[in-house]
Amino acid sequence: MRNDMVARLAAANPVPGPAPVHEPLRARRLAVAAVVMAAIAVPAVAFGSRLAGVLGISNEGSSVPVTSVLPGQSQLDLALQEMQVGSTMQYLGALDGVKFYAQRTAGGKFCFAIDHYTQQYEKGVLCDWNTDNFPSPNVQAITFPGSLQGVAADGVATVEFQDANGAVLDSTPVTNNLFVSDQRFEHGQAAYLVTLDAGGNVISKQTLP
Fold first, then answer.
1. What is the C-alpha separation between 162 and 143, in angstroms, rounded?
2. CA 183 to CA 146: how far, in whole Å?
3. Where do the domains of the chain lie?
4. Are strands 26-27 and 30-35 parallel, antiparallel or unpaired?
5. Residue 202: pLDDT above 50?
6. Is the pTM above the cut of 0.85?
């Protein structure tokens, strides 16, 4: 079943198949579908345990029909159906031109969608089948690895990309559990996704694929 899901989402992606998702210090698997400008591939991270729309963060959003999440994107709509997201998602709000949606699947997995609503093609869907769920001590944020665009756990004030030497490549604040940066990185440039609290203390450091 998992392989079928991954294959289905890969088929919806206009670029070559998705790279593996990661967890701290070891490889993770993901399923991702994306429609993006300039054929940018965007892998993903997320989590599960569906509890009547409770996402495990303060920003629980408002319920909207799945059909309104990515209107006109039939491949992504079908991907959400394949993931058994259900008939609704939680609209978490908009930040810097990006709308955020999230929901847990019938099997308890966290799925996440973004819509750059000012741009025609910048849209994506991601799901993760791993058991170390967001939010957890080691998984304090979920993002598209090529750019800081995602959801952070309560208490996270800043999210960063760092290279393999620990140098900060990009840093962006978290607002209402959401974060967005317009910087883009090639696969392999960013080695870690790092979360920090309001005092600048590191909360988690996740290895990127």
1. 14
2. 8
3. 2-207
4. unpaired
5. yes
6. no
